[in-house]
Amino acid sequence: MDKPSEHNFVELLEKHQNIVHKVCRLYTNNYDAHNDLFQEITIQLWKAFPKFRGDSKFTTWMYRVGLNTAITLYRKSKRRIKTQEFDAIQFKISAEEYDSTEEEQLKLMYQAVHQLNDIEKALVFLYLEDKDYREISETLGISEVNARVKMNRVKKKLKTILNP
């Protein structure tokens, strides 16, 4: 890859790296796994960058590569033996003025989302990123109607998980 392309890639990645961090947050449970997935997604973006034709927005393409990488690794990790995460055991000392309501609600939402399958997670993620159904369908490679139907099913599933 020539220098302008390399520079262009680095510039675009730095500008939009939060997308990769959000994908990592969705598919990992701890700091090390997050960093490993971030690195893997970055490598896959770099490998795929010469093939990026600009048919879609760079960020849409970035979501697609990031989610596909995470989903592929997520499926492989499902075959491993499940162990207790050290980070799951928390020791907290909270000050009286601290209100953890929002944090707890976010934690419950992430726990619910972690129970979804990989495509459902991607749908929720893109929906929460305020992507319209056209962009969701482009990113996931499904029809717009299918994206709407799946999203409605996922919303019902999350309501059931959060309010048993």
UniProtKB/TrEMBL annotation:
Entry's Gene Ontology BP terms: DNA-templated transcription initiation
InterPro entries given in the database record: RNA_pol_sigma-70-like (IPR039425), RNA_pol_sigma-70_dom (IPR014284), RNA_pol_sigma70_r2 (IPR007627), RNA_pol_sigma70_r4_t2 (IPR013249), RNA_pol_sigma_r2 (IPR013325), RNA_pol_sigma_r3/r4-like (IPR013324), WH-like_DNA-bd_sf (IPR036388)
Protein name: RNA polymerase sigma factor
Signal peptide coordinates: none
Lineage: Bacteria, Pseudomonadati, Bacteroidota, Flavobacteriia, Flavobacteriales
Residues covered by the RNA polymerase sigma-70 region domain: 12-80
SUPFAM superfamilies, per the entry: Sigma2 domain of RNA polymerase sigma factors (SSF88946), Sigma3 and sigma4 domains of RNA polymerase sigma factors (SSF88659)
Keyword presence, Plastid: no
Sequence similarity: Belongs to the sigma-70 factor family. ECF subfamily.
GO MF assignments: DNA binding; sigma factor activity
Domain of life of the source: Bacteria
Claim: Transcription is one of the keywords in the record: yes
